[in-house]
Design brief:
Layout (H helix, E strand, L loop, with lengths): L8 H5 L1 H26 L6 H8 L3 H7 L3 H24 L4 H13 L5 H20 L1 H25 L8 H15 L2 H9 L5 H10 L4
């Protein structure tokens, strides 16, 4: 009688396999948190709610995240990185001013569903929390968008579309904060001047400081 086949120990011990499994479990927690955000628009849910939604255990959660804040930070970082990658693909073949317009349009586009609106609302509040309590981590979250804006400014300078005396890194940071901050005025603008503030308004305003 042949001996019973044993599992291949190289599969069990392969670091790449372990890493893939760990990333899969971490992704499950992030998806569960995103689902809760989409339903409630709030970030004050508990770790236990995430664990129950993901059908895992508290022990498994704490193997990946030490706190709920760490989970939300990882989620925000992932969302920003993936969004910026899409925006880069859409803008990399465009001239500087056109690339800036497309990027601002994408950032300022209204939510396409009530679920997405709830997610956006919840993450906006959480971003404020991050800025106040973990500014270094929040800077890491925003780094991909800052790099993209810097690349667009450099392209515009090289083309002669933007002023050559721009301080690219500093101006990209100011531009980024202007675009992100102005989104909060979408509804407020209608009360202040009778017109909701849209992406086209933001683009026109920003362009005035960049062109000759």
């Amino acid at each position: 009688m042949s001996a019973k086949a044993q599992p291949d120990p190289t599969v069990r011990q392969d670091p790449a396999v372990r890493q893939d499994r760990a990333q899969s479990r971490a992704g499950r927690f992030m998806r569960s948190a995103l689902d809760i955000l989409g339903e409630t628009g709030r970030t004050d849910f508990t770790v236990l709610e995430v664990v129950e939604r993901s059908k895992t255990s508290l022990r498994a959660f704490y193997q990946h995240f030490s706190t709920k804040d760490e989970l939300l930070l990882a989620l925000v970082e992932k969302i920003m990185a993936e969004a910026t990658e899409r925006w880069r693909a859409e803008t990399e073949q465009l001239a500087g001013p056109d690339a800036l317009r497309v990027l601002i349009d994408r950032i300022s586009a209204p939510a396409q569903s009530s679920t997405q609106d709830s997610i956006n609302r919840g993450l906006t509040y959480y971003n404020d929390h991050l800025l106040e309590t973990r500014p270094k981590e929040f800077a890491t979250v925003l780094a991909p968008l800052h790099r993209l804006l810097g690349d667009i400014l450099r392209r515009g300078i090289a083309e002669g579309s933007f002023r050559a005396d721009l301080d690219v890194d500093t101006d990209a940071a100011i531009l980024m904060q202007t675009v992100l901050g102005t989104l909060r005025l979408r509804e407020l603008g209608a009360d202040l001047n009778g017109v909701p503030i849209e992406g086209s308004h933001v683009h026109t305003f920003c362009l005035r400081g960049l062109v000759h």
